[in-house]
């Protein structure tokens, strides 16, 4: 547990969905960087990387991705922050190190960093790494033509002929489900891509409202469609107010739908509340029936933090959960640490409606 205490002070931009900006390229989360990086850890990691550092008995736990039956790593690499490094080789180093250490779930999106996140991930997946990865990306298009174009662009950037999990991105409006499932809607492009072998599994993601998630599931059911996976914020603040954990998670687990947890640290506003540290945040998300906890790892030390959290995770008992929720309850009331729910700070498709088509 010593490592937990050491790494728990890192700030962390853990989003897989970036804050909104007015252009596709050069988006910036607009939050302060971490205050420090341990000198010893940093020098060791940057000198030799992390590859080979794990002991044989220190493997990353895997869980089953719902009805798909796929085995996925407890930690997933968030794609947005893998396109922010000034040196593209550093992005590739982070991804390959994560895979070498046992992470197989890779998150991405058509709109992340003007496509740069997918481009870098495509390069990282060369040389045999594609076969080791469960690759997920997302599209914004709400109509068939826009969705089809974005799917093909993602395949080209990622340098692959198939995407393991394709998700409808930012399902945050009450109108999104009806648009996606309308005649000529995006669902037609995605299911056609699946039939063509370009896509294996289909899901959706959003961060705004549990009620919109429930409507998406209900709309799908009306069209005799069942999602393979659903992505949503799951963290110590969400547990208190307008909660995905309380409203959506039970529906997914009952239907054996894969659960993708994101924003375990609120990107990184929960850490700014000073009510929970990084490892506590990650462990809370891991204690839920999540298949994968997606977290942004924009440096080797932050990757190490996530790896350590996965390796040291043990089921939390009721008293541990109660203590953590008691610490975070007051801070959660105002919503200031869940800006993805309460503001447009993370709503890329609101700032860029043209992405929807």
Number of strands: 10
Secondary-structure element sequence? HHEEEHEHEHEHHEHEHHEHHEHHHH
Oligomerization: single chain
Poorly predicted segments: 1-13, 21-57
In short:
With about 350 residues, the chain is α/β, with parallel strands linked by helices. It has 16 helices and ten strands. The N and C termini lie far apart (about 50 Å).
Describe this structure in words.
An eight-stranded parallel beta barrel has the order 3-4-5-6-7-8-9-10, surrounded by four helices. Strands 1-2 form a two-stranded antiparallel sheet. The longest helix is centred in the middle third of the chain and has 15 residues, at about 145-160. A hairpin with a 6-residue loop joins strand 1 (about 60-65) and strand 2. About 40% of the residues lie in helices and about 10% in strands. The protein starts with a helix and ends in a 6-residue tail after the last helix. The chain is globular. The chain has 16 helices and ten strands. Helix 3 (about 90-100) packs across helix 4 (about 115-125), helix 4 (about 115-125) packs across helix 5 and helix 12 (about 280-285) crosses helix 13 (about 300-310). It is α/β, with parallel strands linked by helices and about 350 residues long. Residues about 1-15 and about 20-55 have low confidence and may be disordered. The chain has helices at about 1-5, 40-50, 90-100, 115-125, 145-160, 175-180, 185-195, 210-220, 245, 250-255, 270, 280-285, 300-310, 320-330, 340, 350; strands at about 60-65, 70-75, 75, 105, 135-140, 165-170, 200-205, 230-235, 260, 290-295.
